[in-house]
Amino acid sequence: MGSRKLGGKVYVVGNNIDTDQIIPAQYLSLIPTIPEEYNRLGGYALSGLPADTYPTRLIEPGRAPSEYRVIIAGRNFGCGSSREHAPIALGAAGIRVVIAESFARIFFRNCLATGELYPIESDYGLCDAFQTGDCVEVDLDTESLRGADSSSVYPLRPLGEAAKVVAAGGLFAYARQNGLVRERSGPA
Amino acid sequence: MSMTLTEKLLAKAAGRKTAAAGENLLANVDVLMTHDVCGPGTIGVLQREFGRDARVWDPERVVIIPDHYIFTTDPRSNRNVDLLREFVREQGIRHFYDVVDDGRGAWTFDASQGPLKAQYGSRYAGVCHIALAEKGHTRPGEVLVGTDSHTCTAGAFGEFATGIGNTDAAFVMGTGKILLRVPETMRFVLDGRMPRGVMAKDVVLHIIGEIGFDGATFRAMEYAGPGVSSLTIEDRMTIANMGVEAGAKNAVFEADETTRAFVDARMKEHGTTRPYEGVSADAGARYMSEHRINLSALEPTVAMPPDPGRRNTARQLANVRIDRAYIGSCTGGKASDFEAFAEIARGRTVAVDTFGVPATPWIVRYLKETTKNGRSLWDTLVAAGVRMTENAGCAACLGGPTDTFGRINEPMSCISTTNRNFPGRMGHPEGLVYLASPYTVAASALAGRIADPRDYLQS
């Protein structure tokens, strides 16, 4: 299962970051299951954010992986389309956790299905508590977020069963663990 | 136990007597739809997880509709349509609405012919959510899932319909089942009738403004009440389509005679007939909230950038200048949408660049063959200055490759019948998109600023 603590630099965004901002539509012709195209998707993660509001970019175009590991967001992160390219682009860029006040449903589900990211909700307006570039540690056992100076600790909303799906590596790995599909031989 | 419409649909799909909000269940899927943007990735997951020789669980129930990035010279987009064709051939899938007629052919778009003249073969069906209905793949009582967020459109037919990602879709392809959490239901009771100048798009923009852009997140939106019977099937599709703009898992109307007549005719015409059985919500079902909407009191409504919940009236925004108008998409490119636009534009000329993209080839034919005052609807629109393309598809609703027809490639304001207005949605990140009904978009195109269509309609 690996470490239950995930840390690194945070990238902070606001409310309503939709899937077009996470991965602009012109890159959707990239097929995520082709490794070379998966990597290219990572290079475009969050490239749809308006440059005037977000002068610091998650990633310079084509320069994956990003130096950031955690995204902190406001309400309704991932709203819009059902494109699985969205969590995949973030995962391919090196993001491991998105902490938001709320998530749009399909994005949340796609995070679990792909196993790319932990989508964790927080009741606190963390967008104001952190700035892009701050270092944090996310503890999945105690379900909390700690700032680098250790003085600030924020509880996170429990992810419950969903955390097991991500930890397993996504829907198929989880389904196999639970006997919903057979090992890689054919449909159950 | 009394159940909501969605609980009833999911209980049926899981072979259970009851289902209650909050429960997880494994539902049997009746139709899985995918398209050119998410189909190749879904196939990739299917083959990664079930093996290169994996078979779909039921080739009759998989419907593949290329529609997103078709009329573009982007080689990867053209390749993706070819990958679908190869998969369909291997799997023996019958319901594939290919761009080309040759089952062993390849697709390339010839830009030298220009963007307006049709370049598709006889089977091409256009925008998936409209094509699903046109070709008889939407049936009351069923579960339809698709790799597109606007799959919720099919809730207009009394079925459970929702958008899913590639991995979930690959799971469905291999097993015929999907893990679902039964959503809580918000009930919207419609009273009255829409007054002159008000369209279904105004109803749903009003509702999203009321509950907020995330007001229905993870929930079902159930439409009921005496006002429903006055809504056409296309009206219900427009309303169900934008459920996801309020975050909903699904939006659903109970099937009535209007629904059954539409569905039966389409199935018969296209050889997609199979028995179906609709379900009804129980009296005494538990709803998490109830909202009464008086259709008679609604006004032409606009969602301002940058999100679909920023509601205003066309009247209030009457001084807002626009650079472009656009009519098209799964929510605003249907036959009735173009009819409404033509009603206002007839005999007048647009003041800004105006792009028209019918959702399907059938709609193109309908507009060319339907005449009013001695002129076809198509010619009426062209005469008014609308750049009408025969190349039906998703086009600039979601931006797409940079050579996409109508795409916003520089900062500008556009008023559009489409369903999203987040930054960059129609192309340029600094483009501003106002969402409105075909009536309001037509009036605004004529005025060069946002306009109330009631000032342009004869009473």
Label this structure with key terms.
heterodimer; A: 188 residues; alpha/beta; Aconitase, domain 4; seven-stranded mixed β-sheet; 7 helices; 27% helix; B: 459 residues; Aconitase, domain 3; 2 domains; five-stranded parallel β-sheet; four-stranded parallel β-sheet
Please give the share of residues in helix of chain B: 25-40%
- pLDDT under 50 segments of chain B (min length 5)? none
CATH superfamily of chain A: Aconitase, domain 4
The low-confidence runs of chain A, each spanning 5 or more residues with pLDDT under 50, are none
Distance between the termini of chain B: 49 Å
Provide the succession of SSEs of chain A.
EHHEHEHEHEEEHH
What structural class is derived from the secondary structure elements of chain B?
alpha/beta
Please estimate the helix content of chain A: 25-40%
Strand fraction of chain A equals 15-25%
Strand order of the largest sheet of chain A: 4-3-2-1-5-6-7
Would you summarize the structure shown here?
The complex is a heterodimer of chains A (188) and B (459). Chain A is of the alpha/beta class and 188 residues long.
What does this protein structure show overall?
- The complex is a heterodimer of chains A (188) and B (459).
- Chain A contains seven helices and seven strands, in the order βααβαβαβαβββαα.
- Chain A is an alpha/beta fold.
- In chain A, 53% of the residues are buried.
- With 459 residues, chain B is α/β, with parallel strands linked by helices.
- Chain B folds into two domains: 1-298, Aconitase, domain 3; 302-455, Aconitase, domain 3 (2-Layer Sandwich), CATH 3.30.499.10.
- Chain B has helices spanning 5-13, 39-50, 75-91, 128-134, 166-175, 200-211, 233-241, 257-270, 329-332, 335-345, 361-369, 377-383, 438-447, and strands at 24-28, 31-34, 62-64, 143-146, 160-163, 177-181, 185-191, 220-224, 250-253, 289-294, 301-303, 311-313, 324-328, 353-357, 371-372, 375-376, 386-388, 413-416, 432-435.
- In chain B, the strands form six sheets. Chain B has a five-stranded parallel β-sheet with strand order 17-14-13-18-19. Chain B has a four-stranded parallel β-sheet with strand order 3-2-4-5.
- Chain B is globular.
- Chains A and B meet through helix 4 and helix 7 of A and helix 2, helix 3 and helix 5 of B.
